[in-house]
Write a structure and sequence with these properties.
Elp3/MiaA/NifB-like_rSAM; six-stranded parallel β-sheet; single chain; iron-sulfur; rSAM_sf; alpha/beta; about 35% helix; globular; Methyltransferase_Class_B
Length: about 475
């Protein structure tokens, strides 16, 4: 059987004028994961349109397309193209789960929710000649799931080819989170067996790993066993956690001993009322400053995420947030405009209040205002969003953030990491076009390692100050 698997690109990723590094950071694993259920003699072509030009003159027996909201129109265009050729087309992913009625006219079969339990059933039915129109996930388990088909991933297109996922979902339930609807009808958070996760790590070449899990630290027992098993592997890795999990004693130490060098944290807002309104309760009464200082003491860099446009945000939110992040010495920051994704509680509330102003899914990318904010006009929100990036990544701001570090080695690492992320974008563009971006991975590993620093030892062994009496506001 000939199979075509496609991850359609966002519109901006197809631009002939600019190639953003963010689409070449690491390979998405959704399609490569379900590809593992095919037979060995099936011929599979997996294409990520963000990093390569699609081949559309083929006529496979089966076409599998993963759909996100901002690639939905492109996905439907591709689906219609192959259906006209007589190919059998299936659609799945976050957007299909959120709006199955929209996706159905473009597909022969749609998948709702995760595919680990439904995909084997579909393949059996398809080979037997009687596939169903809808497959809906109900059994949530990663036990016995075969290893990701990494042989289908074109590693040279990505700066960090070793992306990995060892869990699904998140135990928290924030109003604006897209995953809420995706995991309805079953468990919303579950993990691989630790031995399977360690086996997957062990078969990855090189040193660097990027965990794409929504919240790698969520199951403390699982994470602790995983990190213990990773000790001695010589890995350098990045992942995502919450403020709450970073403040818990013991778990961060195990992660650092296993090679943690950089962590993504969804601070989202420094306004307590916003946290309550979005049901992000796990950030309430957490000392953001202490969490950052705790990571700094272990030499772990921070990628902070913030969301603008919540109902308690006014026009001062931009400067306050940026200034706070700079003063805290955050190495990199990502800013987002609040986006009400279909299927979320936020979307339902916006519809009920008649506040949505845009129904073009291309603009639901957290960079456009698609609703009426409560305390500012849409133009101010959009301008403040873009200004935040300019202000945070000014050279003087980067320098100020670097000055918060305790020594020149860490200051230099801050300058190099932050500067390379935004100030070197023209260089990234050239490397991407020359298909040479992967050659910078050793440099990234060296920067993440802190130039062979000894930070990844417990306080007291690394000659670093341990400060148990942090003073900072609870956000």
């Amino acid at each position: 059987m000939k199979v075509k698997m496609i991850l359609p690109a966002l519109t901006e990723a197809l631009s002939p004028f600019w190639r953003s590094i963010k689409y070449h950071l690491f390979p998405p694993l959704g399609l490569a994961t379900i590809a593992a259920f095919f037979d060995d003699n099936d011929e599979i072509d997996l294409q990520d349109e963000h990093v390569e030009v699609l081949k559309l003159d083929d006529e496979p027996d089966l076409v599998v397309i993963q759909v996100y909201i901002t690639s939905a129109y492109r996905a439907y265009e591709l689906a219609d193209h192959y259906r006209k050729k007589g190919c059998y087309v299936v659609l799945g992913g976050l957007h299909v789960t959120s709006l199955p009625q929209e996706a159905t006219p473009h597909a022969d079969t749609i998948f709702i929710g995760p595919g680990e339990d439904t995909w084997p059933h579909f393949l059996h039915d398809f080979r037997a000649g009687h596939p169903e129109k809808i497959y809906q996930s109900k059994i949530r388990s990663l036990v016995g799931v075969p290893p990701v088909r990494r042989d289908l991933i074109k590693r040279y297109h990505y700066l960090i080819p070793n992306s990995i996922v060892v869990s699904r979902g998140c135990p928290h339930h924030c109003d604006f989170c897209y995953k809420e609807n995706f995991y309805q009808g079953g468990k919303s958070f579950y993990t691989q067996p630790v031995d399977d996760a360690l086996a997957e790590i062990d078969r990855l070449p090189g040193k660097h790993l990027y965990f794409l899990d929504d919240h790698l630290f969520a199951n403390q027992a699982f994470a602790a066993e995983l990190f213990t098993g990773m000790q001695g592997m010589g890995r350098v890795w990045q992942g995502a956690a919450t403020v709450e999990s970073i403040l818990k004693p013991g778990l961060l130490e195990k992660a650092v001993d296993a090679g943690l060098k950089s962590v993504f944290i969804g601070f989202e807002t420094i306004n307590v009322a916003n946290l309550r309104s979005q049901h992000k309760y796990h950030n309430l009464n957490r000392d953001y400053h202490r969490a950052i200082q705790r990571l700094r003491d272990y030499g772990v860099m921070v990628n902070a995420s913030f969301v603008y446009g919540m109902d308690n945000d006014d026009a001062t939110v931009f400067s306050r947030t940026v200034e706070w992040a700079i003063q805290e010495g955050v190495e990199t920051a990502t800013f987002h405009i609040l986006t009400p994704y279909p299927g979320t509680a936020l979307y339902a509330r916006m519809v009920a209040e008649n506040r949505l102003t845009v129904d073009n899914w291309d603009l639901y990318d957290t960079r456009h205002v698609v609703y009426r904010p409560a305390l500012m006009n849409p133009e101010i929100l959009a301008q403040g969003y873009w200004q935040s990036y300019r202000d945070f990544y000014r050279w003087d701001a980067i320098w100020q953030g670097a000055q918060s570090k305790d020594n020149w080695r860490d200051r230099f690492r801050h300058l190099l990491y932050s500067g390379a992320w935004k100030k070197a974008e023209p260089i990234w563009d050239i490397l991407i076009r020359l298909k040479q971006v992967n050659r910078l991975l050793p440099m990234l590993e060296n920067v993440l390692n802190g130039f062979n620093s000894n930070h990844n030892s417990p306080p007291g062994k690394a000659n670093l100050p341990w400060k148990p009496d942090f003073k900072g506001e609870n956000y």
